[in-house]
Design goal:
Layout lengths: L5 H20 L39 H9 L7 H10 L3 E10 L2 E9 L12 E6 L8 E5 L3 H14 L6 H11 L3 E10 L2 E9 L4 E6 L5
Antiparallel strand pairs: 1-2, 1-5, 2-3, 3-4, 5-6, 6-7
């Protein structure tokens, strides 16, 4: 067995020392910062500087252009919504929704009725609309018995919701006016947050709306 000479051992030791010295003097670059990837299915979130600022909400929403035009014409009506409902029911049936609306730029009063009454379901009822110009001295109405899918569906929806209420539309209007002063120009049954309500629109300076629970009347 041959052993390394003293010269070989000395050279080997010197080379090891030189390598260690160079490694100690070389700067070590810091690791680049990384953002952990979001778990699968997680929503993407924009960085803070890219987030848009949402304008703060201030009061009730402004009425649309059509609604503003409607509100401007309301004072020209010779009858109120509750009176129109009473006249429509006098002609036969139960009112299930009513509203002032624009027809070709002119004011019109429309009342949906269930001619077989509130106790008959939509399949065994006659769903119709009475409408006419409320600005005339006498409200002259035309009756349309619904035959198209769109109006039958809407009227059936109104009837089904109204059947769950112990209040008629006239009582709903009176309650809404006690809660919010102004002229009521629409009352329609609807679903709000999975609960049946009467949506009542009231003409005020900024536009007003009242929701009344169909079942409790609150």
């Amino acid at each position: 067995m041959r052993y390394p000479s003293l010269v070989q051992f000395t050279l080997s030791t010197s080379m090891v020392a030189l390598v260690c010295a160079c490694a100690a003097q070389a700067p070590i670059a810091p690791a680049a910062a990384t953002t952990p990837a979001p778990p699968a299915g997680a929503p993407m979130i924009d960085p803070p500087h890219a987030a848009s600022k949402k304008a703060p909400e201030q009061g009730e929403a402004k009425p649309s252009a059509d609604e503003s035009e409607l509100l401007a014409l309301l004072p020209s009506s010779k009858i109120g919504l509750a009176e129109g409902i009473a006249l429509a029911e006098r002609a036969g049936g139960t009112a299930i929704s009513a509203k002032f609306e624009l027809e070709n730029g002119k004011l019109s009063l429309s009342v949906y009725t269930a001619k077989a009454g509130i106790n008959a379901d939509a399949e065994h009822n006659i769903l119709a609309e009475l409408s006419g110009d409320p600005t005339l001295p006498v409200w002259q109405t035309e009756e349309e018995v619904f035959a198209d899918i769109k109006h039958i569906t809407r009227a059936s929806y109104h009837l089904t919701l109204v059947q769950r209420s112990k209040m008629g539309l006239a009582a709903v209007i009176a309650k809404a006016q006690a809660m919010h002063a102004g002229q009521v120009y629409a009352v329609e049954p609807a679903i709000h947050e999975r609960s049946p309500i009467f949506h009542v629109a009231i003409a005020t300076s900024g536009g007003g709306h009242v929701n009344i629970d169909i079942e409790s009347g609150a």
